[in-house]
Amino acid sequence: MLADGLYKHADSVNELLARYGVKFGIYKNGEFKEQLFPFDIIPRVISAEDFNFLERGLKQRVKALNEFIRDIYSKRQIIKDKVIAEEFIYSGSGYLVQCDGVTPPKNIYAHISGIDLVQGKNKNWYILEDNLRIPSGASYPMIARDLCRKGVPEMFEENRIEDNRNYAELLRKTMEYVNTGGLSVILTPGRFNAAYFEHSYLAEQTGAHLVTCDDLTVENENLYFIDYSGKKEKVGAVYRRISDEYLDPVNFYRESLIGIPHIFDIYRKGNVALINAPGNGVADDKGIYYFVPAMIKYYLGEEPILQNAPTYLPYYEDDMKYVLENFDKLVLKDVAEAGGYGVVFANKLSKQEKENFITLLKSEPRRFIAQEVIDFLDLDIYEDGQPVPRKADLRAFVLMADEPVVWKSGLTRFSRNPDSFIVNSSQGGGFKDTWVLKSK
Amino acid sequence: MFLSIENSDRLLWLGRYSERVYTGLRSFAEKFDSITDSADYESKYDFVKNFCFDEKNPSSIRSSLLRAYDNAIVLRDEIGSETFSYVQLALYEINKAEKSKTLMLNLLKVIDNIVAFWGMADDRIQDEHARGLIKLGKRIERVDLYARMNASDEDIKREISRLTYRITKTGLRYNSDNLEKLKALANEEKINHSEVISAVENLIELNS
After folding, report:
1. Cβ contact (<8 Å) for B88 and A183?
2. What is the pLDDT of residues A199-246, one digit of tens each?
3. Residue B35 sits at the chain A interface (C-beta within 8 Å)
């Protein structure tokens, strides 16, 4: 195996990750704790050929999703043409009526997309989720690669691996492309956010200012950063790591104690770029996921390159029938949940739990999707000096400037529990670097 | 380089807390030898625990280090990951020291990391103003601590001189009356500690 020599250095690399404070935040019993993000030294390796296939499929998917968001907040042609039922648009929490008729700079909505995939044992790749709001995770393989290169340089001399440390450059270009004139900033809700390490590391690597809401103000229909001497500098692009509802208390959640009053008003006028665009949640709803292959055909006139996991919408009669007949072999997901929560493997339910769940499903069919359980290809992780197989997914990042670019790496997350399919860091999962091999 | 009011304040306090750790530990190291000869094991143990490790005691070394960390972690984009890492390492070392049988050796590593942090800050922070704020915080805290700890008049006078040199270089707004007062106090034959403390604590007008 390509990375055979790496495991000897696992402790050294983990020590370096601790030194640089590579952590994520988690709330347990109402208390905030910082935890090191467990790193496994054995990388996921993707061949150049496989990556080329993924790259084509991911670009296609993100282009279609971007078109979909634009359509939904303008002509809504896809609804008129009955490709998607309108119930799936307006009943989801991701649709924001405030975004109707708003066109973002350069017509880009999904600037940074995090697309979750798994590889089945049959070697086919399946899309699990599209994350188009504020997908996180790129910073972890970025810094892990940097530290592995320092710790074990010979591994990178011997193997032809695409360098993933260009993520900061791609992000900078993404921000600059839509910048309406002025500074580019990264807006963080603050230190007690789960992904604060990422916010601060990306700011350091891109050279963008890391700001909180208090550092920004809207005046004369522009956004300004206020420095320590009171001087104001115009801001042209905000890579915001704050959810839509907390972005602007005047336009969204009025009780919010954070946010920048009127930032959405000047965004609507085209005076600042917000990355990603507010309202993107309409396209990454788990219910909408079902329709993405149809979107690709509708907007691009192409056959989808990448497959969804086989998915059923109990909202439709035929699908409900299938779900009830095959209940025990399916996984059910609450469309309103994220982070690995709201995921139910039907075969793990007791008789009573199953009956209760089916009652709930019948009363709220729009709330759930059902999927066939994909038998993921296991990846080895190093545990107690031995390689052991674990379930793992891949979050691929697609950055959109004049053209979509797929980052030649990604965040591979794995479950540390041998019996679990849940890979999320908030539920104890770890991460690996993702090596994309160069073409021969 | 644009620096927010909040980050200016944090840089200054990062300098102050790191100095508090450094001078606190230096002073502890000097006293450690005489503590070793103390017969009263209980009070000796309590003192070490309270002075070095008690998170509930706001004056303990750990509390000061945690406050330095709280400021450093939100300044990664200003000071850089390399500079930040020495504050993180100092924190790991104090946690190890608490469980260690070679307490003083581990605490010396905390000092090493604070000194490395200052060196790295001086070398790697490109923005002169940001760099200057850490140094200024350090100088303010040094005068304050020396006055509180009844250091020799000679030491306090030397530190006031270093502080007055530093403050005029930062371009920061400061209370010039208090600066003049500090200079005058340093010229007196006998240092008035409480007046030094009052003048140095009211020197900066960062948020005014």
Report:
1. no
2. 999 999 999 999 999 999 999 999 999 998 889 999 999 999 999 999
3. no
Chain-chain contact of A214 with B6 (C-beta, under 8 angstroms): yes
Cα dist. A38→A147, A238, A368, A374, A381 in Å?
A: 14, 30, 31, 25, 11
Phi and psi, residue A437, nearest 5°: -80, 145
Q: How far apart are CA A344 and CA B12, in angstroms?
A: 50
Beta bridge partners of B25: none
The least confident of A295-309, A410-424, B49-63 is A410-424
The structure tokens listed for B23 are 């001078």
Helix (H) or strand (E) holding A147: helix A139-151
- The fraction of chain A above a pLDDT of 90, given in percent, is 75
In Å, how far is A201's CA from the nearest CA of chain B? 7
What domains lie within chain A, and their CATH numbers? 4-303+376-436 (no CATH), 310-372 (3.30.1490.270)
Question: Considering only CB atoms, which residues of chain A are within 8 Å of chain B?
Answer: 18-21, 143, 183, 190-191, 196, 200-201, 203-204, 208-212, 214-215, 225-228, 231, 233
Instruction: Give, for A379, the enclosing helix (H) or strand (E).
Output: strand A379-383
Interface TM-score (ipTM) > 0.90: no
pLDDT category, B44, cuts 50, 70, 90? confident
Closest residue of chain B to A231, computed from CA coordinates: B2
Q: Taken in order B76, B78, B81, B87, is the CA torsion positive or negative? A: negative
Contact A215 B4 (CB under 8 A): yes
